[in-house]
Amino acid sequence: MHSRDSKALACYLALVLMLALSFAPAAGAQGASQVDVLTVEGAITPIVASYVERGIETAENDGSACLIIELDTPGGSVQVTEEIVQRMKAATVPIVIYVHPQGAKAASAGTFLALAAHLAAMAPSTRMGAAHPVDMSGEAMPEAMEAKAVNDAVALVKGLAQPRGPDAVAWAELAVRESSSITEQEALELGVIDFIARDLTALVEAMDGHEVVVGDQTVTLSTRGANVNRLPMNAIEGFLHTITDPNIAFILMTLGLNAIILELSQPGGYLAGVLGAICLLLALFSLGVLSVNWTGLIFIVLAFVLLIADVKAPTHGILTALGVISFILGSMILFSSPFARVSVNLVVTVGVTIGIFFAFVVAKVFGAHQRRPTTGSEGLVGQLAVARSDLDPTGTVFLKGELWEAIATEGVVRRGEQVEVTESDGFKLRVRTVVAESSSEQSIVQRK
Fold first, then answer.
1. Which pTM was predicted?
2. Which residues are catalytic?
3. Same domain, 150 and 119
4. Among 108, 261, 290, 391, which is disulfide-ready with 408 (CB 3.0 to 4.6 Å)?
């Protein structure tokens, strides 16, 4: 009995040990922390603001150790930037701005976001600064309005930089007033950032054990060995963010205008009109987000008016040339703010292509006007016919399978002779004799 109890106890202990070993890895996996990662590239727009807000909410709900925002931006709307800053400050999860990859920048609005974060880091060969306010339309602001905008931005950026020390505050003011920019090494020395990390893995390891203040609480980050959970833009955010690229918006607008012109010139198909309307609507959305320079847009519309006018009333290409010039000028200043510019090569290529197309159309129209009509009563002039009766001076001729009443303008025309139509007057033709032998068709007519 005692022996049996001993064996049962040994089996029980072995089973418990096996279960403990099998659950040990699972427990370790559950205890591993997680960091969520967003990737923001391009201008700071309302779509980016929506993406960042969704990322913060996800990180809060997931209980992530922190939210890292990989940033590479030339700047963006001041209003949108302030909305993102407010959401970052209200977050209950630590937020880290990471200027990445190498060669990236956190210019203008990006500087405000970096200073608003609980932690900031930069990859090697990156830069930050140049935060002087500019008019989104590219137009120069009145002096009083510019001073107001600068002072307001200085107050905001100094407040954001204050937790980072006096050196960071002093530089932040210079970034706004004088568009000062700094490298990652200079930013680290001034206390503007907390780390220089070559990649995301190095950043996650470097943050481990670092204390940050989130709201009114001090939080110690535990990120060593953390799982990285990337949160890309969803399909709608990605699409809208893509079309807000100035080059894409420019192409959409050009395609839309050309499609609408094609539909108006050859109505009835509807496909070109529908596609043109869709492209124009998407372009208008992009223009609204990017704050278009209306002077440039007027130049572009004028260009298409000139091109259409040259098709309707050909001027030997003069209006087409002026239209191309107007198109290129308008496109160059369409997005004149520093973070939203259209590629010069793209503008010239599209402008020249449109010019060649409309020049071809104008040449065809001009050639059609120069050709002798081949239909209607005017198309009968110069045609050859055969007299079916003597024309002295009136009679009948056979032309294109029909009998016509004709008047001879030069002497008497005998039946069977070939004549040429010199004039058409309703259903009556004026003809003259052709000095040539009768054709085989004439011989057949005579035999009949």
1. 0.68
2. 108, 148
3. yes
4. 391
